[in-house]
Amino acid sequence: MAGLHVRSVLVTGANRGIGLGLVQHFLRMPNPPQWIFAGCRDPKGQRAQELQNLASKHPRLVIIALEVTDPASIKAAAAKVGEHLGGSGLNLLINNAGMVKPKMLEAETSEDMTETYTTNTVGPLLMGQAFLPLLKKAAQGSPGSGLSCSKAAIVNMSSIAGSIASSFGWEMMQDTSYRCSKAALNMLSKCQSLAYKEHGILCVALHPGWVQTDMGSFDGHTPPVTVDDSVQGMLKVLSSLSEKDTGAFLDWEGKVVPW
Question: Residues of the chain with pLDDT > 70: what percent?
Fold first, then answer.
């Protein structure tokens, strides 16, 4: 983690689970970012209480109202982040907000499919578009050539469930709408890596492991990976990424996940 030095980071879905874990770890870094933006739907609501407690103790943490399915909310969030950053850009955008509706294939509906896809795939697309000017500014203001997460990067929180080559967990959870949305997110990550490379922005899809969160735990199954272990692993991976890794699909231990 010593290699990750960012002046600013934005994490979506930051009020719980992996998002909250990322915020906590950024705050605990020896050289924490000057700005940590935590996006969540309802910053003043009960579900953001832990985030509010952190923000009251850490002036560098700014909670941003952000609904990733709402283009107007995304634009407003980008404007708000830009105000805080002044003339500097955003180094790291972590698209972590996501949803799952656990269902068997025969029970899937067009409504569930559309809602899941809108949150898990369209949201990161719109976030990348809205925050591109700030990411470009960060890349231009960073010394040296090449790509890195310390310079400017988009990290899309994906899942091995979106791997077409792997049928991981199918017997336990079919979750077809979730799997399809994450497979599409992987392609989006690849497209972003191709489109944004010329601007100096690195883009990756990251599988955090099967993590002990509200979303990861179901039907009495306890996932094997803690939030702390997942986040520590992912930050270590992010610190090591370079130009050769842009467009990759990696897990929290840095291993390549098959498409």
Answer: 92
Q: How far is it, in rounded angstroms, from Cα 250 to Cα 189?
A: 12
pLDDT for 2 equals: 47
The predicted pLDDT at position 143 comes to 80
**For residue 206, what are the β-bridge partners?**
157, 250
| The model's pTM | 0.94
Q: What is the mean pLDDT of residues 194-205?
A: 98
Mapped onto helix, strand or coil, the DSSP state of residue 226 is coil
For the CA atoms of 183, 184, 189, 193, the dihedral, rounded to the nearest 10 degrees, stands at 120
Transcribe 53-117 into DSSP letters.
HHHHH-TTEEEEE--TT-HHHHHHHHHHHHHHHTTS---EEEE---------GGG--HHHHHHHH
Structural Rg of the chain based on CA atoms: 17
- Report the C-alpha dihedral over residues 86, 205, 253, 218, rounded to 10 degrees: 110
Q: Where are the beta strands (DSSP E) in the chain?
A: 8-11, 35-40, 61-65, 92-95, 153-157, 202-207, 249-251
Phi, psi angles (nearest 5°) of residue 86: 65, -125
Token pair in block for residue 140: 């231009």
Alpha-carbon separation of residue 124 from 45, 85, 151, 202, 204 (angstroms): 23, 21, 19, 15, 12
